[in-house]
């Protein structure tokens, strides 16, 4: 898959991108910037909500100590990654951002489009990443692991759901949601395909199940943000959805009547981390690498995980007791989870999106 495929699907128009890029220089829409007016200006993409706290804290301290301006873009992979791709298609030497936090699907998509720069050897903190999640060519580094399972309304379930296939139980007709294509890394399609005889290279078994369910009215619709998912679960519009422990845990901590469960077939492993973006200037790459090293310091990884209910992949980053004692936060639980071949999934995104739009989306 190449970046032109993303453009053909019309993710982001040039005029809209120009406006966003102009605002990103000042911190992005809804974002911020920090630091003295240094000669080097960086833009870092991070996820929203509590996942913004540590990147901005570390970025602000780095900016002050190194006379660098750090601006922030806050959002999701589904929204920001295609905008990044479009930006380098317009001008390969002016990417939307220089350092970004991405998931496994975006890692693989970026690799396919030569979007990432190798992390230099000077970034020594990534050497402490769990060996199973080291990236051989150093084009990025995984920092944390989320676990994908089922998020559900405790008001609707006297006992937690037990299986991925509960998403298709007619008892919950009209009250199930997921993400639209091509965000297959988060909408459970690869898992459902694998559990029903398919694979990352053959998603048809999963698409057939989603298609049958869509025709039967199983889905409330698609969500476009985690805030929408939270609202729909709390209102009762939706009672069950594929989702992440790291998304659900802060809601649970806040007192929402929401639960997270590991399906009997296994969790889905979901690594997340940072990338250096090709097309950045030499000075931007140098400073981004230094900032990356700070982000991977064990104490920063630990704080990130404890705030967001994630599993650290960096040696020396310790979870707080109330998380460390839970079975679904053990690294062993994720290492035995359903693993996704992200590169193969990415190779099949275009065909899968066409099939999804025709057989699933058209029936919602």
Automatic annotation (TrEMBL):
UniProt keywords, alphabetically: Signal
A UniProt-annotated Pfam family: SBP_bac_8
InterPro entries named in the record: SBP (IPR006059), TAT_signal (IPR006311)
KW Kinase (keyword) present: no
Signal peptide: 1-24
Tagged with keyword Transcription regulation: no
Source taxon at top rank: Bacteria
PANTHER family, A to Z: ABC TRANSPORTER SUBSTRATE-BINDING PROTEIN, THIAMINE-BINDING PERIPLASMIC PROTEIN-RELATED
Name of this chain's protein: ABC transporter substrate-binding protein
Organism: Kineosporia mesophila
Lineage: Bacteria, Bacillati, Actinomycetota, Actinomycetes, Kineosporiales
